[in-house]
Amino acid sequence: MTRLRFLSRLGLGALLLGVAIGVLLTPAAQAASRVKDIASFEGVRDNILVGYGLVVGLNGTGDDMDDDPYTRESLIGMLERMGVNTRDDDLAPDNTAAVIVTATLPAFARQGSRIDVTISALGTASNLLGGTLLVTPLVGADGEVYAVAQGQVQVGGFVAQGEAETVTKGVPTNGRIPSAAIVEKEVPFELASMESVKISLRNPDFTTGRRISNAINTFLGTDVSRPLDPGTVLLRVPRDYPGGVVALLTDVEQLRVQPDQLARVVIDEQTGTIVIGENVRIDTVAIAQGNLTIRVTETPQVSQPAPFSTTGETVTVPRTEIEIDEDTDARLQVVEGGVTLQDLVNSLNALGVGPRDMISILQSIKAAGAMQAEIQVM
Predict the structure, then answer these.
(1) CB of 233 within 8 A of CB of 42?
(2) What is the pLDDT of residue 89?
(3) What CA–CA distance (Å, rounded) separates 216 from 214?
(4) Where do the domains of the chain lie?
(5) Which residue in 33, 142, 270, 318 has the most C-beta neighbors within 10 A?
(6) What value, to the nearest 5°, has the Cα angle with vertex 53 and ends 48 and 59?
(7) Which UniProt keywords apply (predicted)?
(8) 39-83 pLDDT, tens digit each
(9) For residues 198 and 209, what is the distance between their CA atoms, to the nearest angstrom?
């Protein structure tokens, strides 16, 4: 009985120790990314499809046939293929719209499967709500038809108007049809017979590519992977791997790798957005930020003669007030060398610097050679 209690306590202690170790190691494991999240495999890719079609059944919100002659010609051609002759008639319906249909053909999509399509008005149509897309072939970059779409258009926006006001929400000339296209042709690709697979990094980097290669070799216990360039890692498929290529890629994409980042500052001057990378470092530099603000205020006053006076006239007398603020209270802020991203942000915030001024400061620091990073202006 005593031995059983000892073993029970020993098992409980081992369990608690294992839980504690797991808690300590969890943040480090979660900091790494899966290979499938930072890279893609050769051949496993989507294909873009596009087509031209007609949407009918609109409530008077279709194309103007006089302004959009291609819509009229398309409608005449469709009716003639159905045996209806409309060449001699004045065809000008307002319930038809010419549209561009786009879709993405997923990798390994099989014949008969369905994909979603997006509808966009091409002419003067003001609303696609309630319309129906007629049969539209979708072609790839090679000109081949890979899918055919048809269905009821779903529009997220709407237009409500009266005689004096119009309210528009969203984009009513853009819609979507879920599962509207049927795949008619498959993209040929033999994955199971491949002897080697190339892994393409979404953000090419020498260090990240080597880490992926080392992680694969460590997992398989043999040197079957090596980086070819900053954006490509070559993986040779072992002949005796259980499950073949599909099983190998399934296991490889779950491996966790810590991707390396460039020291980069991304600036969008139009919106005032600044994104600073983790590895950005600043040498010792002094920063001062000050603006010259001139405020001109016009307060005109009216001067008029005394009551019952027979002389004088009412005039407007201008009154101008000018204020000049040179930010005389601004001080230099010293940023020590090798500071981190958080230190840089704290120093700039201490100066009360806004996003627009911060862009100019970062560019000036880079021009002074004190920023060990790349600045990318969008």
Answers:
(1) no
(2) 66
(3) 5
(4) 47-183, 190-257, 265-301+317-377
(5) 33
(6) 130
(7) Bacterial flagellum, Cell projection, Cilium, Flagellum, Periplasm, Signal
(8) 999 888 899 999 999 999 998 889 988 888 888 888 888 888 888
(9) 11
